[in-house]
Amino acid sequence: LQMVASGRLVKMGTGSIEDARQPDHLQAQVDSLHLDAESSEIIFLGTGSSSGLPSVRCLLSAEGGCPSCREAMMNPDSKNRRGNPSLLIRYRGTKRDPQGDVDGSGSETKNILIDAGKTFKESVLRWFPRFGIKTVDAIVLTHEHADAILGLDDFRELQTWDLEWRGKALPPPTPVFLSDATYKTLCNIFPYLTKKVDTSKGEFQRMVTQLSFNCVPPLKTFNAVGLEIRTLPTEHGPDCICYGYDFGVRDRVVYLSDFTSISDEVFEVIEERQVSILVLDSLRPDKDSLTHIGLPTAVEIARRVKPKKTFLVGLSDNFGDHDEFNEGLRAKYGPQGIDIQLAHDGLRIPLHL
Fold it and tell me: Would strands 348-351 and 340-342 be described as parallel, antiparallel, or unpaired?
């Protein structure tokens, strides 16, 4: 496996990575990487905590902010600048007709978005033009908190609206996969997105995001525009069940963005076969909180699951500078055979799913 990030190409191995810094004049070549005929990829659109980074609290403190928040504020391309946790799966699968049946004419790339939180629009503006992304074909939500759902209102800008749309067909609704609890919360927060308008009864149709909702039970597999994805329920504090997701056949990805504990049943599913990429929550470098695990617990999960590589998301400014902290992780855990790193916004990983 290889990782392609803004400004670097990283080869994945067991317990270590090579970080090959690219000169500035090669940056465009890295950013315009073309996948081969079979490649899919994942792109980290957001890797920060619910507040994102730089932190308002930190920058307005008496000290004027920590070094990493100050650097993120001044440098729009900083790896210390982080949006809400979000992942884009660019899945290259068998081409299908509008009814979902295989049409035999080759392959096509579908874009599947995991979570659209408070920083969704910022993430789209930052990364979609850079990576040539024009559309999102399906949305997968982890839970009902603001950092996972509040960007749904902005999603209409990715749909095919005609500016003179009245009297014409609405854009086809984008499928959304989520838990029952998340759907119930959406009905309260976004009634205009969840309720179907009946213009024949005189109801007024506004120009809002068009979505179709599909509630998926825990530990069940669903098909998102061709990609099989399994739900992994985890506890996100005592009052919330947050879905993680398990997908990929050749290269397997397990994504667990917000949690405090994993049940034995879910661990059994995760440990069924080799995990290529394990993505874990990690709010703090020193300890767990009431609603998120921290680095020590993430390391123990990685030690147990034994993935080829582990990436951490949901990061606070307590980690300090991205590159410096990752150097420390390599030095400490590489010799133990644990390849664990902080992810950063814009990180791309080509995969064969």
Answer: unpaired
What does the DSSP 8-state code read for residue 261? Answer: B
Identify which has the larger pLDDT, 78 or 19. Answer: 78
Give the integer Cα–Cα distance in Å for 326 and 341.
6
User: DSSP readout, 39-65?
Assistant: -EEEEEEE-B-TT-BS-HHHHTSTT--
Q: How many Å apart are CA 146 and CA 135, to the nearest integer?
A: 23
Q: What is the mean pLDDT of residues 256-284?
A: 98
* pLDDT class of 267 with cuts at 50, 70, 90: very high
Alpha-carbon span 130 to 317, nearest angstrom: 26
**Residue whose C-alpha is closest to residue 209's, from 142, 273, 258, 136:** 136
Could you tell me if 65 and 71 are in contact, meaning their C-beta atoms sit under 8 angstroms apart? no
Residue indicated by tokens 């100050």: 70
The alpha carbon of 203 is separated from its chain's Cα centroid by a whole number of angstroms, namely: 36
